[in-house]
């Protein structure tokens, strides 16, 4: 594990305004019906700049594949774009699905991002494919299911990031560049910083692994709410201090959307809920408009799913959203909230983060 190259200061966020914990953003670059991927990605860049101005701590993008309504299939490309359009906010992956990629490639990509935005890059790692089985097979080209090898892949990736394979290891002469090796050569100067590694999860597996490795942990509460508290408890129970962290640090992703009134907020979150229903039933498509979602004839089974899904979305007026987020922090003990706002139009997402920032008294733009 790294020592001074990746410490508490690069992980723990700063609480702003009246927020109980640091507030961050997860964006999926969602593509709404009638909109293009270009518009979705421009909106992601606009959102990164807006949330930086308002004092959000970090901005992550996710890795998803073969999903027409999600344009974030290549998080490293998006992060490179965002690094040129922001100055202070931390940028990261929420996450890179490590079994889809050779660890050396990930180390090279994030070493490049670190060189582009020194001291601002987070490397969040997941063990799921971020897609369905056939797409995962296409990504991995016949390789074994990497999920079972995830701990070994994480260890290998960290070795590449730190450039510290033992002399007898077959990879001891392989270096991830940009990386620490450049600072060891005659005339070489290399920043001591490297992206801190986070483990992501929606169950107990990564929670326990993050605890044993002394790494920060991010839990996907927004789609696995029933497992949030048990996973965080397991993380804290198994945590071992490391050169990265001296105490546990856990953020949770939460779906939240604020609007001027509850009716408009419900209208917007219904689009994301319908998208999820279609995804779960194999009906891929773009994010529907509020009008399409309102007119959709939900079956009884779909209504049950809808009720359960919306029960874990914090939505309504800014005051209601603030109270819901505060209650979630109190219930889970999360050290940081990472908010994701799923809606049809970029304008609705941008407005939601602005209202949440106002509700918490974050710095004015």
Summarize this entry quickly:
The protein is α/β, with parallel strands linked by helices and about 375 residues long. The chain has helices spanning about 35-55, 75-85, 105-115, 135-140, 150-160, 205-215, 230-240, 260-280, 290-295, 300-310, 320-330, 345-360, and strands at about 25, 60, 90-95, 95, 120-125, 195-200, 215-220, 250-260, 315, 335-340. It is about 40% helix and about 15% strand.
Describe the structure.
- There is one protein chain.
- 51% of the residues are buried.
- The protein contains 12 helices and 10 strands.
- It is an alpha/beta fold.
- Helix 8 packs across helix 10.
- Low-confidence segments, given as residue ranges, are 1-6
Q: Could you give the order of the helices and strands?
A: EHEHEEHEHHEHEHEHHHEHEH
- Biggest β-sheet: strands ordered side by side in the sheet: 1-2-3-5-6-7-8-10
Tell me what portion of residues adopts beta-strand conformation: 5-15%
Give the overall form. globular
Radius of gyration: 20 Å
| Portion of residues within helices | 40-55%
Major β-sheet annotation: 8 strands, parallel, barrel
Mean pLDDT: 92
Total number of β-strand segments?
A: 10
End-to-end Cα distance, whole Å, is 38 Å
Number of helices: 12
User: What class do helices, strands and sheet pairing give?
Assistant: alpha/beta
């Amino acid at each position: 594990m790294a020592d001074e190259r990746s410490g508490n200061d690069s992980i723990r966020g700063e609480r702003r305004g009246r927020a109980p914990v640091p507030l961050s953003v997860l964006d999926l670059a969602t593509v709404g019906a009638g909109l293009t991927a270009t518009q979705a990605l421009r909106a992601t860049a606009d959102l990164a700049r807006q949330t930086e101005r308002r004092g959000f701590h970090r901005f992550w993008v996710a890795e998803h594949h073969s999903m027409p309504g999600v344009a974030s299939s290549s998080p490293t490309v998006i992060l490179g774009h965002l690094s040129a359009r922001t100055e202070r906010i931390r940028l990261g992956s929420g996450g890179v699905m490590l079994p889809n990629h050779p660890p050396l490639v990930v180390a090279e990509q994030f070493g490049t991002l670190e060189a582009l935005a020194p001291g601002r890059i987070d490397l969040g790692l997941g063990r799921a494919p971020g897609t369905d089985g056939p797409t995962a097979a296409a990504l991995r080209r016949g390789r074994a299911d990497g999920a079972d090898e995830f701990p070994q892949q994480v260890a290998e990736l960290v070795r590449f990031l730190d450039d510290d394979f033992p002399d007898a290891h077959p990879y001891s002469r392989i270096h991830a560049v940009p990386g620490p090796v450049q600072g060891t050569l005659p005339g070489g100067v290399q920043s001591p910083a490297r992206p801190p590694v986070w483990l992501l999860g929606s169950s107990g597996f990564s929670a326990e692994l993050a605890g044993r490795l002394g790494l920060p942990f991010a839990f996907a509460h927004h789609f696995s709410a029933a497992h949030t508290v048990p996973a965080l408890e397991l993380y804290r129970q198994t945590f071992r201090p490391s050169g990265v962290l001296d105490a546990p640090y856990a953020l949770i992703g939460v779906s939240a959307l604020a609007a001027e009134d509850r009716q408009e907020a419900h209208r917007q979150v219904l689009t994301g809920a319908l998208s999820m229903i279609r995804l779960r039933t194999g009906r891929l498509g773009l994010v529907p408009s509020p009008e399409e979602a309102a007119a959709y004839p939900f079956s009884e089974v779909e209504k049950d799913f809808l009720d359960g899904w919306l029960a874990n979305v914090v939505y309504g007026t800014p005051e209601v959203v603030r109270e819901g987020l505060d209650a979630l922090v109190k219930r889970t003990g999360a050290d940081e909230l990472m908010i994701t706002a799923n809606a049809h139009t970029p304008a609705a997402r941008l407005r939601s983060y602005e209202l949440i920032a106002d509700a918490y008294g974050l710095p004015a733009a």
